[in-house]
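Practice problem 4.
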């Protein structure tokens, strides 16, 4: 079970000399079409960075490459898990081939909430905590905590 965040088509620029998507573009897809989408939902993404000077920075990741993707394949980026503490956000995504339904890759990250003017870690504002908590409560039945790497790093 998961929460769909977006879909993406594999383009020619992402294909390497082996005829499949290069490993670097898995991370790009998870970042642009997973993390950026989630951060926008939580109001801690690009708009927040530009208007309030507050944003997240990823400090740890774990990625798996389960099955190759090729030119013009379409994938769904789904949220498998999400949680936070006062300063940290943990999430895990999966990349599923849209037609064939196989797991292509997973990505887990631990991000810190940062004041961009001082480059120091800060606590999430109350309204951001409420947005995240409401989203997590609404979607908790779709989450799985299986094989998580960073749960012990949240300080609850």
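Answer key:
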């Amino acid at each position: 079970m998961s929460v769909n965040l977006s879909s993406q088509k594999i383009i020619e620029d992402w294909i390497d000399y082996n005829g499949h998507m290069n490993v670097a573009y898995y991370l790009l897809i998870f970042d642009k079409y997973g993390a950026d989408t989630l951060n926008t939902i939580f109001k801690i993404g690009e708009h927040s960075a530009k208007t309030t000077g507050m944003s997240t920075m990823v400090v740890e990741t774990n990625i798996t490459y389960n099955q190759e993707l090729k030119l013009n394949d379409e994938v769904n980026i789904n949220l498998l898990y999400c949680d936070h503490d006062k300063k940290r956000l943990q999430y895990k995504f999966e990349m599923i081939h849209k037609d064939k339904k196989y797991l292509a890759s997973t990505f887990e990250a631990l991000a810190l909430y940062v004041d961009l003017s001082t480059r120091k870690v800060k606590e999430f504002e109350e309204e951001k905590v409420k947005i995240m908590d409401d989203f997590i409560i609404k979607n908790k039945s779709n989450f799985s905590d299986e094989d998580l790497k960073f749960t012990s790093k949240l300080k609850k």
